[in-house]
Amino acid sequence: MEKSQFIEITYLNSKDKELFKIGENNVEKLAVQTNEIIIHFNDNNHKYRRVIPFSSVLYFDTNYVPEAPALTF
Questions:
Q1: Which CB contacts under 8 angstroms, 24+ apart, belong to 54-61?
Q2: Which residues have a Cβ under 8 Å from the Cβ of 62 and sit 6 or more positions away?
Q3: 65 dihedral zone (left: phi>0; alpha: psi -120 to 50; beta)
Q4: For the chain, how long is the longest CA-to-CA vector?
Q5: Confidence (pLDDT) at 71
Q6: d(Cα 12, Cα 28) in Å, to the nearest integer?
Q7: Predicted TM-score (pTM) above 0.85
Q8: Which of 6, 17, 58, 64 is the right S-S partner for 21, CB 3.0 to 4.6 Å?
Q9: What is the pLDDT of residue 15?
Q10: Residue 66 in contact with residue 29, Cβ under 8 Å?
């Protein structure tokens, strides 16, 4: 059984932690980019996202594996 992908974020100023898991609390998709973490939500077909800049993150832990880009020749 495959574990649900997750990301746990600890914030810089408050040291508060948040855990986001795909399939829980309307989390649909995770994205870790160069300077931000994006959490995509789907609440009864109302889609929205939350962008968390790295400047507000102390550290994060994840088992997120991005989809590999298609290779073209």
A1: 55/12, 56/11, 56/12, 56/13, 57/9, 57/10, 57/11, 57/12, 58/10, 58/11, 58/12, 58/15, 59/10, 60/7, 60/8, 60/9, 60/10, 60/32, 61/7, 61/8
A2: 5, 6, 7, 8, 30, 32
A3: beta
A4: 48
A5: 60
A6: 25
A7: no
A8: 6
A9: 83
A10: no
Q: How far is the C-alpha of 62 from the C-alpha of 5, rounded, in Å?
A: 8
Which residue in this structure is represented by tokens 């855990």? Answer: 19
Task: Please report the beta strands in 12-67, taking only residues with DSSP state E, as ranges in sequence order.
Answer: 17-21, 27-32, 36-43, 46-53, 57-62
Residue 29: both structure tokens together: 């998709």
- Residue 46, both tokens: 């109302």
pLDDT tens readout for residues 17-54: 999 999 999 999 998 888 999 999 999 989 999 999 99
Amino acid letter for position 38: I
